Amino acid sequence: MTKENSLTGRKAYIHKILSKDIIFSKNIIFPIRKIQTDLFIFKTYVIQYFMENGKIFISYRREDTSGESGRLKDNLEQIFGKENIFYDVETLEAGLNFDQSIAKALSESKVLLAMIGPHWMKVSDSKGIKRLQKPEDWVRKEIAEAIKRDLRVIPILVNGAEMPDPEELPEDLKELSLKHAQELTSSRWNYDVGVLSKVLEKLITKNPESKPQSTPDLRTTPTPLVAPNPEPKKWWAKNYVWAIGGIVGFVILFNIFPLQDSDESADSNLESEVPADNQEYIPELNVKWTLIETRNKVEYKTTLIFKNREDGIYFLQYLEDSLNGEGKVQIDNQNLVLMYTDSNYDPTGKLIMETTDYGQTWQGKSTYPSMNETYNSKLLRN
User: Fold this and answer.
1) What is the mean pLDDT of the chain?
2) Does 144 score more than 90 pLDDT?
3) Coil/strand/helix, residue 183
């Protein structure tokens, strides 16, 4: 019997139990044992029905915990099945109303995981207003609606984030600060996900197809030892005496007849290879570069591509496959300045770097004035 047919049968049985015809029949009197049996089956079907119709809703902010949320989604899909995980990027179909789709997904969910990273409360819009303080912010809407619907809301702290204080949250999210949080760390990711899944298994039916990885059977028949065939001697083993003698003779002859003007030629070659100090090193265009910013001892990676336009060189910044920002490039000898003209994180940001290996790599600082933050950064060619 398929899951759909089984579910349909349970719905019909629940309706039958709740109808007056079976409880109050013409004979009125039912055997007590049968009533107890029916109520037990009814309770079992109700529990299974609601567990099978519960989903896990993952709420996250892309600029804050995009990578960790995607990794957690993949882990939970292996345990509870892909159909029981709501992850807006992949779950929503193109052309649907986002507000209505979120409300529908929450109505089918039993748990909301609120992914909170170090910048969850700090992310601002282009005007410098924190998104969490705006009523139309989707992350705020998702969590507030889940609290209103009395869903189980579990804060998930990643990258060293801490739970916000109630006075830092808008009125409809203050209850979030009272929730018991679960921490996920990269150093013990599998263990932390295992602890979280044990909590979720009490609310959501586990996917029967998920099986623990089997450990290999170490009780195998030992392979008999076979003596290796002797390898033939190599040329060096046969002729090393003649080779050493030749090297010694070459050294003696070199000392007797030294090369003339070797120092002068070496100096001239060195001068020709070392570039001038005032030479400009332009990052290779139309090639992917990796920007690494270290925030609270955690490395955040994005992809940069440099483009040559009529009014100068510009850069495009991508987070995974989504455009995260863009800006103009200024080059002064070995110094490189990237100035944002548009960014999902901070449109006033600036990166100042320099190179010591003739433009192969760049190192420096990333500053975000509106966030009042500065990070160490480096730029590497892919």
Assistant:
1) 75
2) yes
3) strand
